[in-house]
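Notebook entry, cofactor series.
This is the third protein in the set we're modelling with a bound small molecule. For this one the ligand is zinc ion. I'm keeping the input format identical across the series so the outputs can be compared line by line later. Sequence and SMILES below, as received.
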Amino acid sequence: MNVELLTLKALSPLALHRRRTSEQFAPTLDYLPGSTVRGALADAYLQGDPSRAEETLFRQLFLSDEVRFSDFLPAGKFDLARVLPATAVACKRFEDHADSRSDALLRLELLREWDPPDLAKHNIWKECPNCKAINLKGKRDRAEAGYYAPDDPATPIKVKRRMIAGAAIERATGTAAHSMLFSHDVIEESGAYDGQETLFRGAVSIPQTLRQDLKDLASQHARLAVGYGRSRGWGQLQVQGWDTPRSEAHSLQERWSAFNDTIRQLWQQHGRAVPGQYFSLTLQSHLILKDEQTGQPVLDDIQAVHLGLPVGVERCYCALSAVVVSGWNMAAELPKADDWALSRGSVLLWRMPHDADPQPILKRLEEIEVNGLGERRNEGFGRMTACEPYHYIFTQRELRGGSQ
Ligand SMILES: [Zn+2]
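Returned structure with ligand:
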């Protein structure tokens, strides 16, 4: 299986609705779900001729599990962007207070250990350093959802949006219909005002035998259409190019060590012994997981066994939220039943005893990082990263700076 990065450029406003909707105000997603890109490529293949869906190549590319499309996220410089974790924090008052950017996962786990929690001590860390420098009492709070490039985690990747208002047209008269004003929230196209490009990048996992066929279909400058409003020219994307992903800057083993080193230092600073070895899983896309016994969706009741982690792994602090995802069954040409999923950005922290061998867990985590988990993985669901550096690099810096 090859993994290739595909970059798409928005040529017109994009309106990607969260759900099937008929409301007068429809917010857009700020990324292209894997299923959306896959659907757009399938449309490009068919060229308006539904009978081509019977071709073997079409079925291999779009209806099999052989080819997987990740979500296409707002693009940083080179690599696939990461989803900002639910534990990310930033200054509550000033967006440009860069030193306030940090992550609360390890701090919140430490707080959980105290009974009663030592809030006074914890809250020292919550002060925004930039506010403090100008004698203001600003606090860090949960950061807004967003993205960052792995090589520059302190700089959020911005998605520009704007509102487009429109009126429904009365069919009989051809004029604006009474009290039918619609507001559309859209992602701004490339060069709308400032000449900046609006790019999205995703990972496509594809067998060697199909690689060239997909690249021919999505060749440079090929046009694709996604989302709402295509008849009025919205949703136009252009293929910017294919790239080979750069290898991860740090191996899982290195991240595991750095993660646990940071925990040791933080716990030490608060005069506590570390109760075990820790690791985290951070959702890079929604996770649709069903309990094998009951068939029910696994949400905030998620346990180590659902992830295929060995016995003895204990769940610690988690920041979880749930989301309903809809979909389109291309083979049946029908909407898929809605699914409940754990939302991307959700974070799970786990612990195992000091004397447990980390190797089987590292092996399992590596499998999870490569293959993902749960249902609809060929549409980008179930992707996650283990021992994500975002959870420890800021804390490391704060510990070096002597901050609490
Ligand atoms: Zn501040």
